[in-house]
Amino acid sequence: MIVVTGATGKLGGAVVEQLLQLVPADQVAVSVRDPERVTALRDRGVRVRAGDYADPADSFEGASAVLLVSAPLIGDKQLAAHRSAVAAAVDAGAKRIFYTSHMGANPSSPFPPARGHAATEEMLARSGVAYTALRNGYYATTVPMLLRQALETGELRVPADGPITWTTHADLAAAIARILIDGNVDGPTPPLTGPAAINMAEVAAIATRVTGRDIRHVAVSDDEFASGLPEFAATMLLGMFAASRDGDFAPADPTLASLIGRPATPLESFLRAALN
Is residue 103 helix, strand or coil? Predict the structure, then answer.
């Protein structure tokens, strides 16, 4: 049985839907804080357990494999949550732990989540249980957020950047489900990415084509970009741009497309759906 955490989230929920196309529902379980949010899954035959990372309780009982979707935290709070979940999966006798890491996982990264992913991968390597770190590409859902103001002003004003392999949740969910079933990757996977590494100037050009509005890329200082942003958002986004300049989110890799049996979704196709 495969137990999936984070099943009420965008990625975890999509993984469950993909799994249900591959295996009988009684071979899938979900661990969620509020079981009432997933009654539809229970009605389809999925086993539903109550639990969170701080108190996994019996969430992982009977699991042959556990998918740990990274907690939406950073720093020590995230690592404490992951440590609790990993210990519970080990105690439950899981044969393999799968973890949604990131292609930019790096203990010295300027991007805070990348440091947390690297530390969690090290934690898994010391757990004594087989593990797979799913090195996901950067979520394409970040791009519409970055474009929000540009769609009004006509200027995409961002710091100096490097190319990023923007990757859709749908593609990642399909690839992760396949890996969960096959279970044949030890340690970090190859990067699971979209089809191309794209910089902000190219994002502006794509947005112009998709929306029919003229959107110009303008490079600004970190201070100007962060002005007016909440501190947490500024830290995260400036870290993302700095890591992209270091090449942490490129190049594109063919592994995801091979897993899902079709080309990965281009950013332009994603934005046509997201912005129109």
Answer: coil
How far is residue 216 CA from its own chain's centroid?
28
Q: Which two tokens stand for residue 60?
A: 């992982």
**Which residues, listed in sequence order, are joined to residue 217 by a DSSP beta bridge?**
156
R_g (Cα) of the chain, nearest Å: 19
What 8-state DSSP symbol labels residue 192? B
Domain positions in the chain:
2-137+169-192+253-261
Task: Give me 55's structure tokens.
Answer: 């108190």
Query: CA 166, CA 177: separation in Å to the nearest integer?
Result: 19
The pTM (predicted TM-score) of the whole model is 0.96
- CA angle 135/113/261 to nearest 5° reads 20
Contact 132, 167 (CB under 8 A): no
Locate tokens 């396949």: which residue?
178
Q: What is the DSSP letter of 216?
A: E
Say how far apart CA 242 and CA 245 lie, in whole Å.
5
Rounded Cα–Cα distance for residues 87 and 96 (Å)? 12
Task: For 142-176, write each residue's pLDDT tens digit.
Answer: 999 999 999 999 999 999 999 999 999 999 999 99
CATH level 3 topology of 2-137+169-192+253-261: Rossmann fold (3.40.50)
Question: Does a cis peptide bond (omega within 30 degrees of 0) precede residue 251?
Answer: yes
- 3-state secondary structure (DSSP) of residue 176: helix
Closest CA to 133 of 186, 71, 77, 78: 186
The confidence score (pLDDT) of residue 247 equals 98
